[in-house]
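Protocol step 4 of 5: obtain the predicted structure for the target chain.
Materials: sequence only (see below). No template structures provided, no constraints applied. The aim of this step is simply to have a reference model before the mutagenesis design in step 5. Sequence pasted as it appears in the construct record:
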Amino acid sequence: CFYYGMRSLAVGAFTVIAAVVANWISDLCSGRGLEWWDASPVVTGMIIALLMPASVPYYIPIIAALFAIFVVKFPYGGTGHNLFNPAAAGLAFVTLCFGDQLANYPIPLETLPMTVDETVKLTQGAASLLKMGAIPTISMEQLALGNFAGPMGTTNILVIAACLIYLLIRRNVKWYVPLTYLATISLFASRVHHENLSAAESIIVELVAGSLMFVAVYMLTEPVTLPKRPMGKVLYAMTAAVITMLFRYYGVVLNSAVFALLLTNAFTPLFDRLVEQGHIVERSVIGSED
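Step 4 output (structure tokens):
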């Protein structure tokens, strides 16, 4: 709201309402009645909205929310049973359908009108520039404060880091899941990077560009789609990180971290099975607190 004005709140509100209503309809169709206390569609709607440009047409995040609930969440049994992250699936669907409208972003601190038209100035995000081989010209201060073009909820790294600390204190996430993911990303970026960037610069730019940090904190750590065993979670995070970077360097779609997460979701049972065949390694590396 600070960077883009009230339109960002409107995008979030419409998306959350669509997700909640779709969840109620699905509850009724399943025959188990409305579960008023279920806040998961609110989370799904907010994640979808925050991974959108603030200038996005309202119908796109609404379609993403409807797809997430009707197609991905309830066919597999509803809350707590989904095989794939619903928000990630909704985002992937609209990225494939409306990629051109999601590829550009408004300039921060230029308040958007509630109805965006062709007079609003849009620019490419840091991830798109890296994809084309260009180097984003963003100062460290801008990086820290999120004052650069990108999905409206993903650029302020300090806020995301503060939220991660809060989630860790509340024990809502396992610390080694985002740590393994970000460490693997950093290792990859230090070894494979653009000629005009040093290894350290490459790590910083890759971590803040696009939706990678947001996905690491809010989506990768979702307990329903994570493996059950600690070492399985580590393998899961490492795999998601490698696929993310492969998509970033060699893929052709936006939201590489989202697509990588969905692909990794499909292998969740495999990671647990691998750990069960070598349970001694799991105990020696992490422990059995789960």
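Step 4 remarks: The longest strand covers residues 104-106. The chain has a mean pLDDT of 86.
Proceed to step 5.
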